[in-house]
């Protein structure tokens, strides 16, 4: 056991720097994904068939192609095709994660908006709100309560999928664990066990945060607040993009 | 169509004053189903009109067309002398209205729904102030003052911080009435506003509406099956069947001596059923 703790202490600075990158990828990827979710989700409800179609094509494209290949494309193909190279492959990671999970999130937004009763829309029209006011003041705040649980699932999948960036040489948590193994093969068990635990703790923290947000959103709508559970079951229909 | 002198009188006055609402050969179809068939009728300013008729006769459709929740298939609806469903293009021709034009016209009209439709993401006060603040541009304080006056009018001064889900149906409906009035509409549309309520809660809502009817000059179109209420608040009753007016008159006359056989049958059914 002594060995384990020595290894842990030695490996910690490296693993922490890996966690930092993982967190940056997850947080920035999630923010981008959230923005794109709303953009494509709202576009999919447009009256114009052009706007709807554009959103449909983009969403289907990013859901239907592999995240790894997208990642390779942004890092290796884009500079050749467009002559434009991202300063840091981390940006490519953020963009690929954001686009991919934004495409999944668009469906969540669409479903959430559809779940708000038609009568609520009619009440906003009767009060002469503009289309933007209808969404901002009434519809989205109500739809949010529906969207938070599936967004939570996507967020955790995004965290886990962020480890794929090792393939383009980004030094995230899983990269650092692998580096420890390469330096000293006997420490492989410790390094990977520790990083498994770290991923789990991160996922648990995100999940707890999302549950709290969900509870808050439901309470505000006067709905029953869901029971606290250690980990909520991941729904099969929210399958990952990996 | 059976008419009596009072209704005919109203008809003449309407011509003189200019109607606030005028349906001109309005047709509404859903696919094959013709709900309104070249419907003509008008309402003069300040008048309160009750719409009655069997289920499916098109009463709700008329109110929804006025609230611009539905589009006319043919014909034109006029509100305060201007087309509601249409606007004039540069050549003066009537073309279907766009959103900006609809927003100008909607200002004049408010609606209270059968199922209240309060916003569950806001407390009672914000339900009433939200549109005045964001749509009319009132300050939060002005809107709150206006909202509190209305809450007093509907007897719910102590509920301004309550969540809608904590109110009874009757209380929710009174908040919905206050919310509609806070926009100061010229025309108020009421679609069976008490029919989703438990019987003991109906009277409170009706009393509030009686107050509003007697203390304001707001034009009202009321759909209801409550004959006493219709008699108290309205000056004219329109009996609909299959999207047409088959009889109209004062509530006193029409309820006590209906002339059309279908009206007699309908009134009997309502009296027995409720
Ligand atoms: N969106 C719609 N699509 C298809 N048919 C509709 C739609 N809305 C209403 N209808 C039909 O139009 C007819 C008139 O409906 P409407 O709701 O105006 O009747 P109503 O007089 O209000 O009846 P009730 O007393 O039951 O409320 C009905 O046959 C109804 O089924
Ligand atoms: Mg109806």
UniProtKB/TrEMBL annotation, chain A:
Membrane topology category: Multi-pass membrane protein
Cellular compartment(s): Cell membrane
GO-annotated molecular function: transmembrane transporter activity
One matching Pfam family: BPD_transp_1
UniProt keyword list: Amino-acid transport, Cell membrane, Membrane, Transmembrane, Transmembrane helix, Transport
ABC transmembrane type-1 domain mapped to chain residues: 19-207
Signal peptide, first to last residue: none
Domain of life of the source: Bacteria
GO biological process assignments: amino acid transport
Cell membrane among keywords: yes
GO CC, alphabetical: ATP-binding cassette (ABC) transporter complex
Transmembrane segments: 20-40, 61-81, 154-175, 187-206
Cited InterPro entries: AA_ABC_transptr_permease_3TM, ArtM/GltK/GlnP/TcyL/YhdX-like, Ectoine_EhuC, MetI-like, MetI-like_sf
Protein family: Belongs to the binding-protein-dependent transport system permease family.
The name this protein goes by in its record: Polar amino acid transport system permease protein
Organism: Phytomonospora endophytica
UniProtKB/TrEMBL annotation, chain B:
All residue ranges annotated as the ABC transporter domain in the record: 21-267
A single cellular component GO annotation: plasma membrane
InterPro entries attached to this UniProt entry: AAA+_ATPase, ABC_ATPase_HisP-typ, ABC_transporter-like_ATP-bd, ABC_transporter-like_CS, Ectoine_EhuA, MetN_ABC_transporter-like, P-loop_NTPase
GO molecular function annotations of the record: ABC-type amino acid transporter activity; ATP binding; ATP hydrolysis activity
Organism domain of life: Bacteria
Main localization, broad class: membrane
Membrane topology summary: Peripheral membrane protein
UniProt keyword list: Amino-acid transport, ATP-binding, Cell membrane, Membrane, Nucleotide-binding, Transport
Places the protein is found: Cell membrane
Protein family according to the UniProt entry: Belongs to the ABC transporter superfamily.
NCBIfam families linked to this entry: ectoine_ehuA
PANTHER family: AMINO ACID IMPORT ATP-BINDING PROTEIN, GLUTAMATE_ASPARTATE IMPORT ATP-BINDING PROTEIN GLTL
Protein name: Polar amino acid transport system ATP-binding protein
Species for this entry: Phytomonospora endophytica
Organism lineage: Bacteria, Bacillati, Actinomycetota, Actinomycetes, Micromonosporales
């Amino acid at each position: 056991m002594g060995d384990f703790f020595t290894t842990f202490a030695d490996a910690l600075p490296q693993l922490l720097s890996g966690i930092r990158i993982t967190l940056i990828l997850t947080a920035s990827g999630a923010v981008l994904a959230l923005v794109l979710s709303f953009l494509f989700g709202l576009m999919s409800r447009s009256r114009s068939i052009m706007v709807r179609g554009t959103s449909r094509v983009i969403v289907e494209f990013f859901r239907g192609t592999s995240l790894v290949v997208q990642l390779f494309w942004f890092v290796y193909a884009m500079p050749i095709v467009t002559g434009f190279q991202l300063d840091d492959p981390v940006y490519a990671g953020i963009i690929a994660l954001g686009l991919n999970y934004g495409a999944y999130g668009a469906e969540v937004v669409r479903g959430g908006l559809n779940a708000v009763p038609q009568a609520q829309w009619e009440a906003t029209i009767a009060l002469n709100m503009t289309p933007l006011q209808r969404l901002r003041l009434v519809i989205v705040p109500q739809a949010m309560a529906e969207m938070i649980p599936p967004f939570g699932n996507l967020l955790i999948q995004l965290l886990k999928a962020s480890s794929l960036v090792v393939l383009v040489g980004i030094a995230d948590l899983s990269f650092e664990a692998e580096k420890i193994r390469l330096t000293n093969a006997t420490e492989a068990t410790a390094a990977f066990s520790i990083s498994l635990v770290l991923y789990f703790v991160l996922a648990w923290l995100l999940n707890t945060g999302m549950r709290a947000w969900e509870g808050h959103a439901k309470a505000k709508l006067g709905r029953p607040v869901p029971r606290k559970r250690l980990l909520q079951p991941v729904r099969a229909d929210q399958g990952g993009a990996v | 169509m059976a008419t009596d002198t009072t209704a005919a009188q109203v008809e003449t006055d309407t011509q003189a004053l200019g109607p606030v609402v005028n349906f001109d050969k309005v047709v509404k179809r859903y696919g094959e189903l013709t709900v309104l068939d070249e419907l003509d009728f008008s309402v003069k300013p300040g008048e309160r009109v009750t719409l009655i008729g069997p289920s499916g006769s098109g009463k709700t459709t008329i109110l929804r067309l006025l609230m611009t929740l539905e589009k006319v298939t043919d014909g034109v609806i006029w509100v305060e002398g201007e087309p509601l469903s249409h606007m004039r293009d540069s050549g003066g021709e009537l073309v279907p209205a766009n959103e900006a034009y609809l927003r100008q016209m909607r200002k004049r009209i408010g609606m209270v729904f059968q199922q209240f439709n309060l916003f569950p993401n806001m407390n009672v006060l914000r339900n009433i102030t939200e549109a005045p603040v964001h749509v009319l541009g009132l300050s939060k304080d002005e809107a709150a003052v206006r909202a509190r006056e209305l809450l007093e009018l509907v007897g719910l001064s102590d509920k301004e911080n309550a969540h809608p889900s904590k109110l009874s149906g009757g209380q929710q409906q009174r908040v919905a009435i206050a919310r509609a009035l806070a926009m100061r509409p010229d025309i108020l549309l009421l679609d069976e506003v008490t029919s989703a309520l438990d019987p003991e809660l109906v009277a409170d809502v009706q009393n509030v509406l009686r107050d509003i009817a007697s203390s304001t000059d707001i034009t009202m179109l009321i759909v209801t099956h409550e004959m006493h209420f219709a008699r108290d608040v309205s000056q004219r009753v329109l009996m609909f069947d299959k999207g047409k007016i088959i009889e109209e008159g004062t509530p006193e006359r029409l309820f006590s001596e209906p002339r059309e056989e279908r009206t007699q049958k309908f009134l009997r059914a309502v009296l027995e059923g409720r």
